[in-house]
Amino acid sequence: xxxxxxxxxxxxxxxxxxxxxxxxxxxxxxxxxxxxxxxxxxxxxxxxxxxxxxxxxxxxxxxxxxxxxxxxxxxxxxxxxxxxxxxxxxxxxxxxxxxxxxxxxxxxxxxxxxxxxxxxxxxxxxxxxxxxxxxxxxxxxxxxxxxxxxxxxxxxxxxxxxxxxxxxxxxxxxxxxxxxxxxxxxxxxxxxxxxxxxxxxxxxxxxxxxxxxxxxxxxxxxxxxxxxxxxxxxxxxxxxxxxxxxxxxxxxxxxxxxxxxxxxxxxxxxxxxxxxxxxxxxxxxxxxxxxxxxxxxxxxxxxxxxxxxxxxxxxxxxxxxxxxxxxxxxxxxxxxxxxxxxxxxxxxxxxxxxxxxxxxxxxxxxxxxxxxxxxxxxxxxxxxxxxxxxxxxxxxxxxxxxxxxxxxxxxxxxxxxxxxxxxxxxxxxxxxxxxxxxxxxxxxxxxxxxxxxxxxxxxxxxxxxxxxxxxxxxxxxxxxxxxxxxxxxxxxxxxxxxxxxxxxxxxxxxxxxxxxxxxxxxxxxxxxxxxxxxxxxxxxxxxxxxxxxxxxxxxxxxxxxxxxxxxxxx
Length: 570
Prior knowledge:
Elements: H1 14-17, H2 42-69, H3 78-91, H4 96-114, H5 123-147, H6 153-168, H7 194-224, H8 231-249, E1 262-270, H9 286-303, E2 312-314, H10 328-341, E3 345-352, E4 360-368, E5 372-378, H11 392-398, E6 417-420, E7 423-429, H12 436-444, E8 449-454, H13 464-479, E9 483-487, E10 493-495, E11 501-504, E12 511-519, H14 525-529, H15 532-551, H16 560-567
Parallel strand pairs: 1-2, 2-3, 7-8, 8-9
Antiparallel strand pairs: 1-12, 3-4, 4-5, 6-7, 9-10, 10-11
Helix pairs in contact: 2-3, 2-4, 3-7, 4-5, 5-6, 5-15, 6-7, 6-15, 7-8, 7-13, 7-15, 9-10
């Protein structure tokens, strides 16, 4: 029997027997000599990352699709502001790498939908170009994430939108500016801003309004999360909404001069083509004959008194499908039409380059009824892979479709100011209307009205003609000039200096549009300042990124917004 001094052993729990550990020490110490758990493989880590980022990625893609719907043919311009706000929120408080991925997830579906008209070439072309353009938006996303740490981040974000568009407008191969925020706002309250700072200022206004809405959302989230719910606490969010509204309607205060120094009566001939797509030309001389026949009918209407004789006639790009200087039958047909109508005709034709054997000029030629062909303009910015093939020898072996571009177009070396009858017109050919510098230099050289000669037959009924017409409307406001679009198959149109589309044709119909257009000599503020606002805003955005880097603040995926909230830097 145990003595009285001994006690019966008690059952103890493992927790009771566990040694007391210091605060912060692991719950259980690994046995001596045990190996640390193996780090998950790359595939596992990527899968976990994908699951974690899937909701944000999906929201970014949805925002990109919303931005695509802001552009023609849909034209829901308010979505451009909301899409900018969404991207600002989705990149806020993220690392630069995370912001880049979010930007790419935003940009890829946006460009894929916007540029789907390229499917007539192939969906691989749509995908490839969309990926290239989305990479610029990825850089934008990284910049938005970085500058979201700074006070006043909506302003720096708007400047970064300008920097992104500045880069896309120039590289690679001379750039591709399709999809600028300004081109979704050619009939919105932001449009008049173009008269002050061109397309870049319109983009800046849209991006700033979107950033301010994002600022307001963040401020509202702070209040809901439990911050002091006072009038004073709500003022930043309310003020941001009010400022966004002010930015949106600021364009209404911009005067748009539309008075004419002189006028000219014009006729636009849309001869039509055989069919849409890559083979729109049909048999030789068919497109030319369509425009000749439409012009001959115009001449008969003038002789019968049904139509007033115009001062000049405008044919579209590629209206002569054969070189009139190499094929006598093409020249004879043009001269027949010009003599019949009795006024100068601006003819679009592809001609052999006079000094560069093997190259082609895409030209607008002034054809006079008495003296024949005279002054001309050669397109300055041929489209890569459509009108010339970079690295032809190497790429043609891999991409056989490039053989459908048998000869390269040679870029012109001067602006397209042409005297056509009584009017000094600025000729801009097709995609050149998307490039700020080309149109600005043409107006600066003395153009009193602008003509966009274009051939959209390849992309008919895809939305591309509507997108290009929207650019013409913006250029009209930017430069205070009437803009006349002449297309082989549509959309031909007359745009007033205030951006209103006064007349337009339907696609794939033969049509002749007659109108009296104003000829103006005055210049807008945008004409005088040129590209200075774009450069200044882009540099400010890049300096904001540099400042974030130099300050050395580290962004954490979680908690960053909370830290900034404490500092009042929403």
